[in-house]
Design goal:
Layout (H helix, E strand, L loop, with lengths): L7 H11 L9 E2 L2 E2 L2 H10 L8 H21 L7 E8 L9 E10 L4 E3 L4 E5 L9 E6 L11 E4 L7 H4 L9 E5 L2 H4 L30 H7 L5 H13 L5 H15 L5 H15 L1
Parallel strand pairs: 3-8, 4-7
Antiparallel strand pairs: 1-2, 3-9, 4-5, 4-8, 6-7, 6-9
């Protein structure tokens, strides 16, 4: 693009590569071509220079931006043997720890499964920052649970709830990602989910946070009755309008782990704990 804007011939070639229209007829609207590609071609053929005309340089930038966004969409990796489903718990207690039950109302996936009985599957929940936020479990079919369709049933048994292992999830509408592609699942190994066994521990960041523990009762007891509501609103607005750091830190952690090609060493775990505190603290 940088080279094309300096040479009309190269620019026409670049525009031709962007154009998806195969017919020779160019639709016009209000005296100008209706699409940005045809509009830019029309103006360049008329002698206008994108290096001197801000309107044309804006069109070039918009076209390049659209091209980058399309490339980003095309680069998404799709896994046919995977799905997302709401998480619910097995109140009948027929599932053993690290077992899940999932049935489909219609044949699903490239293999046409009605259930995933006997398959090892990966379950996760976004966002998954810690290595333990993705768990490898066994999918089983339980006749007692066959009426539950298109949801994933988690076991009630076990020391730590499976949902809790997945980024601190629960059963109030959270969705789990389920994958049963053997090329992905077979080589996966679970990591520990006990915070006390991780290095560094979860409380390694506690000294860096100044927690606001005020309650509505505290504001009422320390203020006159007539102004306690105003102070409560002011306190809430002051807290809510503070700059959020979750997105900034998430981007930093993604780039940091990508450069070092590691998600499970001490710095990566520490950054994951930080993101957890920023999200749920």
């Amino acid at each position: 693009m940088k080279s094309a804007v300096k040479d009309p011939g190269l620019l026409r070639k670049w525009l031709h590569e962007l154009s998806s229209r195969r017919s020779r007829e160019v639709p016009f609207l209000a005296g100008l071509p209706d699409s940005n590609v045809d509009l830019l071609s029309f103006l360049v053929d008329g002698g206008f220079d994108p290096m001197r005309q801000k309107y044309l340089s804006g069109l070039v930038f918009d076209l390049q931006k659209e091209k980058c966004e399309k490339t980003g969409r095309d680069l998404k990796i799709k896994i046919p043997r995977s799905t997302n489903a709401y998480m619910t718990v097995d109140f009948l207690s027929v599932l053993e720890p690290d077992e899940v039950h999932i049935c489909f109302s219609t044949p699903f996936g490239s293999d046409g499964h009605y259930d995933l009985d006997g398959l090892d599957v990966l379950v996760a929940r976004n966002p998954a920052h810690l290595p333990s936020d993705i768990q490898k479990v066994k999918a089983v079919f339980k006749p007692e649970l066959r009426r539950f369709k298109d949801v994933i049933m988690f076991p009630l048994k076990g020391d730590v709830p499976l949902a809790q292992k997945l980024s601190g999830g629960d059963y109030d509408g959270d969705r789990a990602w389920i994958c049963w592609d053997p090329d992905i699942v077979s080589s996966f190994r679970n990591t520990t989910v006990k915070p006390e066994d991780m290095l560094p521990p979860k409380d390694a960041l506690s000294s860096f946070f100044d927690w606001n523990t005020k309650t509505a009762g505290d504001l009422i007891s320390t203020n006159a009755e007539g102004i306690c509501l105003d102070n409560l609103i002011e306190e809430g607005l002051s807290f809510g309008l503070k700059r959020g750091l979750l997105g900034i830190c998430t981007k930093f952690k993604d780039d940091f782990c990508h450069r070092r090609n590691c998600i499970g060493d001490k710095p990566a775990i520490l950054l994951s704990w930080l993101l957890g505190e920023l999200a749920f603290g």
